[in-house]
Amino acid sequence: MNVHHLPMEFIIIAAGLFGAAAGSFLHVCIWRIPRETSIVTPASRTPCCDVSIRWYDNIPILSYCILLGRCRYCRSSISLRYLIYEIVTALLFAGIVYKFGISLTTLLYLIMTMNLIVASGIDWDHQYIPDFLSLPMIPAALVVAALVQWTGMFPQALVQNIRQAIVGCVVGGGIIWGIRIIGAWVFQQEAMGFGDVKLMAFMGGFLGWDETLLCIFLASLLGSCVGIGLKMAGKIDKYGRIPFGPYLCAGAYLCLLFGPEIIQWYTNPLFSP
Ligand SMILES: [Zn+2]
Q1: How far is the CA of 44 from the centre of ligand 1 (A)?
Q2: CA 140, CA 217: separation in Å to the nearest integer?
Q3: CA distance 169 to 56
Q4: pTM value > 0.85
C-alpha cells in the first residue's frame, strides 16, 4: 500500500496521535534531564503517592480526561503540564505533517520540533538550555545542508546549501550574542544567556539568514506580548527575568511552517513601504 494514497485527514490525525505520545515522552525528558536521571528507566510513578503508573493510565490526553485530572490512587490533582505538553506536541506535529506531507523533510523537522520543545520546557522551568540540545545540532545543520546540496535529499528544506547554513549559524548566534553584550551594558545585568546564543546558532543553520531574522523578530514580538501579560498579572519573579529560549523556539517553528510565505508577503511591493 502506498502511503501517499491515504487521505490527508487520516495522515494528520495519525500525526496528532503520534505527537501526543511523543509529547508525553518529551514531558518526561523535560522533567528528568535537569535532574540528571535516566529518561528511560525507571518507569513513571505517580509524583503524589509513588505508585507505578499502569499503561491504561498513561494514554496521552485520553487518560487525563478519563481520570478527570485526578490521581487514580490518592485523588490528588494531576499537573495540567502533562495535558499541555501532549496537546501542544500533537498540534505541532500535525502542522509539520500537513505542510510537508510524508517525506524525509517531515522527519527532519519533527526531530527539530521535539528538540525545540525540550529546549523550551527546560529553559522555561530552569532558565538554561542544555548544550547537548544545541551544540550537536550545529554540525547536524551543516550535514543536512550538504545532503540537500549534493544529493537532493530534503528538497523542501529551508536551507538549500552549506553556505546558507553557515551564514544562518553566524547571523543567528551573532545577533543574540550582540543583544547579550548590549543588554548587559545597558541593564548592567545578564539580559540573555549564552544558551540562547548557541540555540539561535543551531536554529540559524536550519533556517538560513533571512528566516533567522524573521525568527528573532517573531520571538521578540511573542516575548513582549507574554512579558507584558505576565507583568500585568504580577507573575514575573523579583528579578524580572523571563526565559527567551521558548520564544526563539516558537519563532523557529513558525518559520519552518510559514517563513517563506511571511517573507514573500512582507517583501511584496504591494505591501512594503
Ligand atoms: Zn496519587
Answers
A1: 12
A2: 24
A3: 44
A4: yes
